[in-house]
Design brief:
Bound molecules: adenosine monophosphate
Structural class: alpha/beta
CATH superfamily of the domain at 4-114 and 175-212: P-loop containing nucleotide triphosphate hydrolases
Low-confidence stretches: none
Shape: globular
Largest sheet: 5 strands, parallel
Helix content: 40-55%
Radius of gyration: 18 Å
Distance between the termini: 14 Å
CATH topology of the domain at 4-114 and 175-212: Rossmann fold
Amino acid sequence: MVRHILFFIGPPASGKGTQAELVSKYYGWPAISSGDLLRRSADLPQKYQEAIQAGHLVDDGVINDLLQRRLTQADTKLGFILDGYPRNSSQFAYAYNYIITPQDRVCALEIRVSDEEVYRRLEGRRFCPHCGAGYHLIYKPSKREGFCDVCSSKLVRRPDDKPEVIAERLKIYHDTMEPLLALWQKRGELEVINGEQDIPAVHQDIIAVLTRRGYVLPH
Ligand code: AMP
């Protein structure tokens, strides 16, 4: 049986998590976020919890094992979507040596968004430290500027959305992912999607590309 495997790749604020969830609903395959796997892992040693909080990658062996365990679950039998994995060339090699088989149908979807747009999206992001509601100065403004619609608390910026931190996150993204994108391209498995459109338009482009590649709805 053909197993359908999708990799979602994109910089911070590209919307790849949202798109992975939409594609998951469309095809019925689970979207597996490596960050979520780590955050939900009950017995994760303290040093890895600290690495996650600092934005550093955890050791490859840890995430490879967590992922392998997740992939033994029955819901992945027909296909699955990976968001946040692989993050470096050794994880890429692991995926092709130990996860993917020659029978699988594989596609890597790069949700492409320019650095300028990433800044615009992240710089405008605000959230309510009291109730957690999220806003955006341009795309989703609160009714009273600077204050939460739900509980009227003063809105703040996430520490990792500050310009100097955004620059660092973008640099890490380009340095680590560009070599992997080149590998997918060489394998003929890469599709580039214009991420600078609204959410339904990006979703439509993804479904069009996947349909062309023979990803059909399971009966
Ligand atoms: P994310 O939710 O994808 O932004 O991931 C949150 C954090 O989890 C990252 O900053 C890393 O510390 C860790 N993480 C997620 N995916 C991986 C991975 N594939 N390899 C190593 N660490 C990861």
